[in-house]
Amino acid sequence: MSCTNGFENVRLMYRLVLAVDVEKYSTRDAREQLRAQRELKRILTAAAQNTGLDQRDWYEQVSGDGELVVMPENVDVSAVVGDFTCQLETILGELNRDVIGGTRLRLRVAMHHGTLTPGPFGPAGDAPIVVSRLLDARPLRRLLADQQDRDLALIVSQSLYQDVVRTGFCSLAPEDFRPVRVNAKGIQYHGFVRRPAPERVAPTVLRAASGGGVDLVALPGGRA
């Protein structure tokens, strides 16, 4: 009797998954949506470069207001959770300081380390579902709504907090995180939302990559 169930060519992988979403994207007009897309693309690229990450190794599944990223197998998870997040925060702050009379770009970011497998319409499995549920968590949305001076709100899964943030190898302080529970479609998810003290929000500024002629984000499907 076969034990493959018709999935003999499918390989289960354990990867770091990141999801990012632009706050209040649907309230923008088409011109502002395009500007948000271009700015998000530039910020992600600059943060990756400043952290030493190679975006050519990423699997990116994009939507109009954000994207889901599957990191490569050999990525330094602590660097992505800590240093990459700090770079996003820094570059966002620099960008928004120059906004006069327009809409600031504010982001929700979620991360989880779990299992997935490639599929014809994107990654399938536990990891992309968990990170999507955390990204949409009410406590994360409320953090941006309540703290208008904040540019980025981060949530990590409970396992990622325990395995990475608490180790001391991550540049984010464990005491800045608060546990939350998320109920979605009858399932409860556990995560940790980062709520740092104001004096620790802005890390040392590194020079962002120039955003001169940034191309439009690719259509959904990304690259494998």
How would you characterize this protein structure?
The protein has 224 residues and is α+β, with helices and mostly antiparallel strands. The chain has a single domain (14-200), classed as Alpha-Beta Plaits. The chain has 5 helices and 7 strands, in the order βαββαβααβαββ. Helix 1 (30-51) packs across helix 2. Strands 2-3-1-4-5-7-6 form a 7-stranded mixed beta sheet, with helices on both faces.
Brief overview, please?
It contains 5 helices and 7 strands. The protein is an alpha+beta fold and 224 residues long.
User: What is the class in the CATH system?
Assistant: Alpha Beta
Supply the CATH architecture. Answer: 2-Layer Sandwich
Total count of helical runs of at least 4 residues = 5
Helix content: 25-40%
Radius of gyration (CA) equals 17 Å
Cα(first) to Cα(last) distance is 34 Å
Mean pLDDT: 84
Number of strands: 7
The name CATH uses for the topology is Alpha-Beta Plaits
Class of secondary structure makeup: alpha+beta
- Major beta sheet summary: 7 strands, mixed
Poorly predicted residue ranges? 201-224
Q: Topology, pairings included?
A:
Elements: E1 13-22, H1 30-51, E2 59-63, E3 66-70, H2 77-97, E4 107-116, H3 126-135, H4 138-146, E5 152-157, H5 158-163, E6 177-184, E7 187-194
Parallel strand pairs: 4-5
Antiparallel strand pairs: 1-3, 1-4, 2-3, 5-7, 6-7
List keywords for this structure.
224 residues, alpha+beta, Alpha-Beta Plaits, 7-stranded mixed sheet, 30% helix, 23% strand, globular
